Amino acid sequence: MNPLYAGLADIFEVDPELITPDARLEDLGWDSLAMVSTIALFDEVYGKPVGVDKLKTCQTVADIEALAAG
Amino acid sequence: MPVEGVKAVGASIRAVATFLPEAVLTNDALAEVFEQSWPAARILEKTGIAERRIAAPDQTALDLGVGAVRRLFDAGHDPAAIDFLIFCSQAPDYILPSSACLLQDRAGLPRSIGALDINVGCAGFVYGLALATGLIASGAAREVLLVTADTYSRFIHPGDRSVRTLFGDGAAATLIAADDKATIGPFVFGTDGRGADRLIVESGGARLRRSEATRAERTDEFGNVRSRDNLFMDGGAVMSFTLREVPAMWAELKARTGLEDADFDQVLLHQANRFMLDALVKKLKLDPAKVPYFFEKIGNTVASSIPFVLEDALAAGTIGPGSRVGMLGFGVGLSWAGCVAQF
Hints:
The complex is a heterodimer of chains A (70) and B (343).
Chain A: H1 3-12, H2 25-28, H3 32-46, H4 52-56, H5 61-69
Helix pairs in contact in A: 1-3
Chain B: E1 11-19, E2 23-26, H1 27-33, H2 40-47, E3 51-54, H3 61-74, E4 84-88, H4 99-106, E5 114-118, H5 124-138, E6 143-150, H6 161-164, E7 170-178, E8 183-191, E9 199-201, H7 212-215, E10 218-219, E11 225-226, E12 231-233, H8 235-257, E13 266-269, H9 274-284, H10 305-316, E14 324-331, E15 335-342
Parallel strand pairs in B: 4-5, 4-6, 13-14
Antiparallel strand pairs in B: 1-7, 2-3, 6-7, 8-15, 9-12, 10-11, 14-15
């Protein structure tokens, strides 16, 4: 499984099947703690930091993935 | 090329004594306030924090510091041997004079000491150690008392779970003395004032006086309530900064000393919370057995967090004579500092 998706499932404490590219972060329980955890996860998965201001613009799981390519 | 750091100084941490206020803030109590999304079990699981201690309404950081110093003297340390007092806090009793001067009198320290305050947050203990060893290296002092004390609870809005779950009040008194068998240093420092607004209490200083306007409460996008009189922390920004700067600081410290991870018996990180330390340990690729955690019963005690974990390690014997220990502090400023201590 995509390690970002697996990590997000852990963070949101949801079934991994619910983590899809178009899943909306707000629906998953996007709060300050989830954001902080996602910053650590992103760094771990992609080996590079993600700016918090960029992460704050993300609406969906795909938006987070797109930051890895950018 | 980074400049070569100051050399290790012949000095040692002789003793640490901590002090906590009595009132306990439990996760159950917090879950009552934040019931929708943050049940008690989730707070513990994510933060690793079960309880925090909260200063009484009439109890200041200085009062907590006095408690820590008394415990140090009760353990048999001679106040008369102290040459210098450094009080590190972000909650002084007064605009002026400094709390260190008040502490000299209240703790019964000699009138011959030098005493000053430093305003540093979570990196404060390592900054204080650097100043103490500098005073010892220059011959200005042989024994330095470093007191770290904070009452962040006083700044926190009760409706702001982003910080209320994490921070606890507390103080520590650490005795640093000239020593020909032990060393402290070198040090690595870092400062990035561009991040000042990421962890801040805006009002109450000279820039922005407290007023009706600063007391106005706002609710952020996550439902946390605070005003400009309260502590604000952009947790995401602090995590990004930590994952960027702390590994670089650790690498620099090892480069300056020629030491490798395996050469360290323990690495004491600022005890922020579980999710941050787990992320750091993973990123630093440190052996978790060498990185003790000490926040479950007290939360993040700011500049006192490293002395709390150090006191515990000294008592348990995981740090003792001959131990080589790395210490890394990081936080508000943004500010960070690391050092090596050879016990």
